[in-house]
Amino acid sequence: MDHENVIGLLDVFTPSTTLEDFQDVYLVNHLMGSDLNNIIRTQRLSDEHVQFLIYQILRGLKYIHSAGIIHRDLKPSNIAVNEDCELKILDFGLARHAEVEMTGYVATRWYRAPEIMLNWMHYNQTVDIWSVGCIMAELITSRTLFPGNDHINQLNRIMALCGTPDEELLSKISSKEARNYIRSLPVMRKKNFSEVFQGANSVAIDLLERMLELDADRRPTATEALAHPYLASLADPTDEPTAEPCDQSFEERDLPVQEWKQMVHKEVIMFEPKIRQISAGISGVAQDMQRMLRCSD
């Protein structure tokens, strides 16, 4: 992947000189300095900060999703930030192709979309949009939005804000046990987001509410979220690149360890280092805002 808001691989090398003694691989990434978790814990962010950071996250997600990939573990500590408020999405250890069968227990609980807990095998790229909504709320308030201490408590916290699912949404939940549990609860009405997030930009609240939609089918895609009025001063569809579909078919091959070792060694030897300006692809308007903002822990 090659995108300003996604962690890139600048170089790969090994101290080994032959295939026989090949054991260690060193990966070189951009030095970013901090992450969103540290930033949130150490400073109060302005609306301009929130706008610029969310724009970059969604810009990176548009690229990732266009490759057919779901990140599945977006959270503040997986978003690296430098002192100029440039960010990069990190840690693709739980990422999967959108077309493969999924597992239920992915993503850090506090940022986990409700459909992951309710449907297990049936979800799509909008699980990442839910996580962005949780992150955005945290940027606004400096507090974790849904700090559930277990699976059930997490769901209850979500429903306390977003309301209990209606019958239309319940019909989409594949787990009979989950449906029965939700029906056993007292009906909770969705709270007024403007009252919950008092003092926040009303346009920001509208985007937040859309991303924290219980029904994944109604949640915006990354591309749709980028077109929201809250991000209008930064958005530039001509500078929000997409990727070619990611071919992961090689992972399905059943090969002996030695052959995998040969393949990895070949990739390391053939890798061409990439040196480029970090912010080269960010639009002029975004660069102007970047010069006005600082993010440091």
Task: Note down, in words, how this protein is organized.
Its cofactor is Mg(2+). By secondary structure, the protein is mainly alpha-helical. The chain has one domain (11-292): Transferase(Phosphotransferase) domain 1 (Transferase(Phosphotransferase), domain 1). It has helices spanning 36-42, 47-66, 114-119, 126-141, 151-162, 167-170, 176-184, 193-196, 202-211, 222-226, 257-270, 284-292, and strands at residues 11-13, 26-28, 34-35, 69-70, 79-81, 87-89, 96-97. Strands 3-5-6 form a three-stranded antiparallel β-sheet. Strand 5 (79-81) and strand 6 (87-89) form a beta hairpin. The two termini are 28 Å apart. Residues 276-281 have low confidence and may be disordered.
Give keywords:
globular, 297 residues, mainly alpha, three-stranded antiparallel β-sheet, nucleotide-binding, two-stranded antiparallel sheet, EC 2.7.11.24, MAP kinase activity, ATP binding, Transferase(Phosphotransferase), domain 1
CATH topology: Transferase(Phosphotransferase), domain 1
Number of helices: 12
Shape: globular
> What percent of the residues sit in helical stretches (DSSP H or I)?
25-40%
Q: Find the count of extended strands (DSSP E, 2+ residues).
A: 7
How would you classify the helix and strand content by structural class?
mainly alpha
Largest sheet: 3 strands, antiparallel
CATH level-two architecture: Orthogonal Bundle
Percent in strands: 5-15%
- H/E element string? EEEHHEEEEHHHHHHHHHH
Radius of gyration computed on alpha carbons: 21 Å
The separation of the N and C termini measures: 28 Å
**Structural domain tally:** 1
Strand order of the largest sheet: 3-5-6
Which CATH first-tier class would you pick?
A: Mainly Alpha
CATH superfamily (homologous) name: Transferase(Phosphotransferase) domain 1
Q: What's the mean pLDDT score?
A: 87
Low-confidence parts lasting 5 or more residues at pLDDT below 50? 276-281
